[in-house]
Design brief:
The structure is a single chain. The protein has about 260 residues and is of the alpha+beta class. The protein folds into 2 domains: about 5-125, Sandwich (Immunoglobulin-like), CATH 2.60.40.10; about 140-260. The protein is about 40% helix and about 25% strand. It is built from 4 helices and 9 strands; from the N terminus they run E-E-E-E-E-E-E-E-E-H-H-H-H. It has helices at about 145, 150-195, 195-235, 240-260; strands at about 5-10, 10-15, 25-30, 35-45, 50, 55-60, 65-70, 85-90, 115-125. It has a 5-stranded mixed β-sheet, with no helix packed on it. A 4-stranded antiparallel β-sheet has the order 1-3-7-5. The two termini are about 45 Å apart. Keywords: Membrane, Transmembrane, Transmembrane helix. It holds the Pfam family Motile_Sperm. Belongs to the VAMP-associated protein (VAP) (TC 9.B.17) family.
Length: about 260
């Protein structure tokens, strides 16, 4: 096959690395052929990365954007990262949908299979820009009114309520993540006791889903912490409008997660 089925950009995955912070980069898969192309994205560490979507079908002339998430890491990587990704592609049979794609379609012995390898690179993430603390006189033309004891007590009560809800939400997510880790042994026991291709597909999907759930939980916790820090800074400036807006954002964030 002289012509590549998919053009993959970039040629290497660069993750901005920070301890205890999740990281994300993006892949663009472009179909330059006149046929539908089925693809699958694999990684050497499926428990460490989340790939969405990891399989799919790209129509002629179209581009699929793939999100690759790296879970928050507790230690700095030693040496050059050995993690790698593999993009497999093949001309899709007529009528094939993304739900019909199985691992058996991307076997190494298939002559119709095309593969492109991508290496992982960790780059130093830029530190967050410091937020200047404005003087009290510049906070608001009504600063003296907002700094009254009644206002301060009201704001403190709002912040305490938000902190309590956020703490309970964090415990809920952490408990769910621990349960997922406990289920991992059961997943691998099933993989050892079965050898059918259909069972291996199921095990692979379970591992991939587990990684993505952990990554989504980390994203939620990060967004939650960001909102709490913004509320805390707003309390320092006694800006009631900003605080109410952030609290509304926090409540909407929590309600959205529960509905999801």
């Amino acid at each position: 096959m002289n012509r590549k089925l998919l053009y993959v950009q970039p040629s290497e995955l660069k993750f901005p690395f920070q301890l205890n912070r999740l990281s994300t980069c993006w892949l663009q898969l472009t179909n330059k052929t006149n046929h539908n192309v089925a693809f699958k994205v694999k990684t050497t560490h499926p428990k460490k990365y989340c790939v969405r979507p990891n399989v799919g079908i790209i129509s002629p002339g179209s581009t699929c954007v793939v999100k690759v998430g790296l879970q928050a890491q507790k230690d700095f990587p030693l040496g050059v990262p050995k993690d790698k990704f593999l993009v497999q592609s093949m001309i899709a049979p007529i009528g094939l949908t993304a739900e019909d794609i199985t691992s058996q379609m991307f076997r190494k012995d298939s002559d119709a299979l095309e593969e492109q390898k991508l290496r992982v690179v960790f780059v130093t993430a830029d530190p967050p820009s410091p937020i200047p603390e404005g003087s009290e006189e510049d906070c608001s033309p009504c600063a003296s009114e907002l700094d009254s004891p009644y206002r301060k007590n009201y704001i403190s009560a709002l912040f305490d309520s938000a902190t309590t809800v956020a703490g309970e939400f964090r415990e809920l997510l952490s408990e769910g993540q621990n349960n997922e880790r406990g289920d991992e042994e059961e997943i691998f026991q099933m993989s050892e006791s079965t050898a059918e291709p259909e069972d291996w597909d199921t095990v692979s999907k379970l591992i991939e889903e587990r990684s993505c759930v952990i990554l989504e939980n980390q994203e939620l916790l990060y967004e939650l912490d960001t909102i709490r820090r913004q509320i805390k800074r707003s309390i320092g400036s006694s800006n009631v409008v900003i605080i109410v807006a952030l609290l509304a954002c926090l409540l909407g964030f929590l309600i959205g997660y529960v509905i999801k």
